[in-house]
Write a structure and sequence with these properties.
This protein is about 35% helix and about 15% strand. It has helices spanning about 5-15, 20-30, 45-50, 60-70, 85-90, 130-145, 160-165, 165-170, 185-190, 215-220, 235-245; strands at about 35, 40, 55, 80, 100, 105-110, 120-125, 150, 175-180, 200, 230. The strands form three sheets. A five-stranded parallel sheet has the order 8-7-9-10-11. Strands 3-4-6-5 form a four-stranded mixed sheet, with helices on one face. The protein has a two-stranded antiparallel sheet with strand order 1-2. It is globular.
């Protein structure tokens, strides 16, 4: 963790020409974390990667989440907690009063101040209505990170004409996230129609033989259509993070 005396010394070195501004910034990028005992917050991830650390809410106690949020609340950057139950959100909201909650995708968030929205369009496509919670996790994450998310819902291969009706929309996307359960064939179909990268998200939606998402995961991994990347089962957040990295310009 950066101490105030060390920071003052580095600033003096920059002022006296012993350290360039670029070297000063690189030193900040390599700083470790904020150790609060129960967690080590990666406070400089925003400097290193351009995006802040995101909190995985599932499995953490309300006391742990409250301490983490209180430490993060003083920063002006985005706060995002994934996989958070509504009752847990109610118990931790006072630790960060500006925190908001989306019950559909179970995300708690405080948007970044003065967020810049990228011009590129990320299309989030679902095979069925049952896939919407994962798709909404992806779409909401994209919007919080600064990408434009466009939703295209319920266009699975059981009625592929519903997908083809949106040909122009598919062609205008910079990245497409395809969220599908059952056998997961939609990702291959979409990838065969477009020139942009496709990120496939298998969901745990389906009957017994889909094995809680294993079947669509294997279908997507085994796709014969090139240009598809696959994330883990129900990982809408991971798909959105990757899509945003593809969508944003490299500084």
């Amino acid at each position: 963790m950066l101490s105030e005396p060390l920071l003052r010394r580095w600033i003096r070195e920059v002022q006296r020409g012993r350290r360039s501004p670029k070297q000063f910034l690189e030193s900040l990028r390599r700083l470790p974390y904020d150790n609060i005992g129960l967690a080590k917050l990666d406070t400089h991830r925003l400097l290193r990667r351009g995006l802040p650390e995101v909190i995985f809410g599932e499995g953490k106690t309300t006391q742990q989440l409250r301490r983490i949020l209180k430490r993060m609340a003083g920063q002006g950057s985005l706060i995002l907690v994934t996989r958070l139950g509504a009752e847990v959100f109610e118990a931790i909201q006072s630790a960060c009063p500006k925190l908001r909650y989306d019950p559909i995708c179970r995300l708690a968030f405080r948007p970044k101040r003065g967020k810049l929205v990228l011009s590129g369009r990320v299309l989030v496509v679902t095979a069925g209505t049952a896939d919407m919670p994962i798709a909404e996790e992806a779409a909401k994450t994209l919007e919080l990170l600064g990408s434009r998310a466009v939703r295209l819902l319920d266009v699975g291969v059981a009625g592929v004409h519903r997908l083809l009706d949106h040909w122009q929309l598919l062609q205008r996307a910079r990245v497409i996230i395809v969220v599908a359960g059952m056998e997961g064939a939609l990702a291959s179909v979409v990838a065969g129609l477009v020139r942009c990268p496709v990120i496939a998200v298998p969901t745990s939606v389906g009957y017994g033989a889909s094995f809680q998402g294993i079947a669509p995961l294997l279908t997507m991994l085994s796709s014969c259509t090139p240009g598809i990347g696959v994330v883990n089962i129900d990982n809408g957040f991971g798909a959105a993070y990757l899509a945003h990295l593809i969508n944003r310009p490299i500084n």
